[in-house]
């Protein structure tokens, strides 16, 4: 239906209150229907509606109050970045997962500044999408490695400035951040405490001049710190 549709009046009912509610924003009807159908088979996730352009996404997000918005970058009436900025201005706690097939360094850096929590390839598998949706509600930042590699390749010839010096441990934490792991997961993988891991994250953000993990990963990719073979 043009302009978006929803399958619930207010995005909440007694049976779904503890499940992660998701608004799908995509102007490709087949993709949107396949994704919402897949979500209906997940016991901890459920779709509250679908929007197909910028205006309907903003309107439905305000009405349905989803936990997570799965947002395609290419939309009618603008783009997913514009829609995300408007949604987050009204509801900053909303977690937005951006889908794109043609990433750029500028796009990822803009996303980091906007507050988008995940960047994923639209042509990825269902599993590639479902886990970040689950992690998004917990505040985990995720950028799929394939998008980082693509953006890094596009900008390799343009890189300017010198990369800051990171310690070996900071580089290990940075690479795990780029893979989308949480601080707790990183701490376990590195056999350190979560508090110690948070200290490394703070140091990385300071050295890269970043305000979030997503921005740090995007900046590190631009500077060539992550390379092509993580």
UniProtKB/TrEMBL annotation:
<dbReference type="InterPro" id="IPR016032">
    <property type="entry name" value="Sig_transdc_resp-reg_C-effctor"/>
</dbReference>
<feature type="domain" description="Response regulatory">
    <location>
        <begin position="21"/>
        <end position="137"/>
    </location>
</feature>
<feature type="modified residue" description="4-aspartylphosphate">
    <location>
        <position position="72"/>
    </location>
</feature>
<feature type="domain" description="HTH luxR-type">
    <location>
        <begin position="159"/>
        <end position="224"/>
    </location>
</feature>
<protein>
    <submittedName>
        <fullName>DNA-binding response regulator</fullName>
    </submittedName>
</protein>
<dbReference type="InterPro" id="IPR000792">
    <property type="entry name" value="Tscrpt_reg_LuxR_C"/>
</dbReference>
<keyword id="KW-0597">Phosphoprotein</keyword>
<dbReference type="GO" id="GO:0006355">
    <property type="term" value="P:regulation of DNA-templated transcription"/>
</dbReference>
<dbReference type="InterPro" id="IPR011006">
    <property type="entry name" value="CheY-like_superfamily"/>
</dbReference>
<keyword id="KW-0238">DNA-binding</keyword>
<dbReference type="GO" id="GO:0000160">
    <property type="term" value="P:phosphorelay signal transduction system"/>
</dbReference>
<dbReference type="Pfam" id="PF00196">
    <property type="entry name" value="GerE"/>
</dbReference>
<dbReference type="InterPro" id="IPR058245">
    <property type="entry name" value="NreC/VraR/RcsB-like_REC"/>
</dbReference>
<dbReference type="InterPro" id="IPR039420">
    <property type="entry name" value="WalR-like"/>
</dbReference>
<dbReference type="GO" id="GO:0003677">
    <property type="term" value="F:DNA binding"/>
</dbReference>
<dbReference type="InterPro" id="IPR001789">
    <property type="entry name" value="Sig_transdc_resp-reg_receiver"/>
</dbReference>
<dbReference type="Pfam" id="PF00072">
    <property type="entry name" value="Response_reg"/>
</dbReference>
């Amino acid at each position: 239906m043009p302009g978006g549709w929803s399958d619930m009046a207010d995005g909440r009912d007694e049976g779904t209150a503890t499940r992660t509610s998701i608004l799908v924003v995509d102007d490709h009807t087949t993709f949107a229907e396949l994704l919402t159908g897949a979500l209906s088979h997940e016991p901890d996730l459920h779709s509250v509606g679908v929007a197909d352009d910028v205006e309907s996404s903003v309107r439905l997000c305000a009405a349905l109050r989803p936990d997570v918005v799965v947002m395609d970058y290419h939309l009618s009436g603008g783009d997913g970045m514009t829609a995300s900025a408007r949604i987050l201005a009204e509801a900053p706690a909303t977690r937005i997962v951006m889908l794109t097939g043609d990433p750029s360094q500028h796009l990822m850096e803009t996303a980091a500044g906007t507050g988008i929590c995940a960047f994923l390839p639209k042509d990825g598998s269902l599993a590639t999408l479902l886990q970040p949706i689950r992690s998004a509600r917990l505040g985990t930042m995720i950028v799929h490695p394939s998008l980082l590699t693509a953006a890094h390749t596009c900008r390799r010839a343009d890189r300017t400035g010198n990369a800051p010096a990171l310690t070996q441990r900071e580089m290990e934490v940075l690479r795990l951040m780029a893979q989308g792991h949480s601080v707790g997961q990183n701490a376990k993988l590195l056999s350190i405490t979560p508090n110690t891991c948070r200290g490394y994250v703070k140091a990385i953000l300071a050295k890269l001049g970043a305000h979030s993990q997503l921005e740090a990963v995007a900046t590190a990719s631009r500077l060539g710190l992550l390379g092509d073979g993580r």
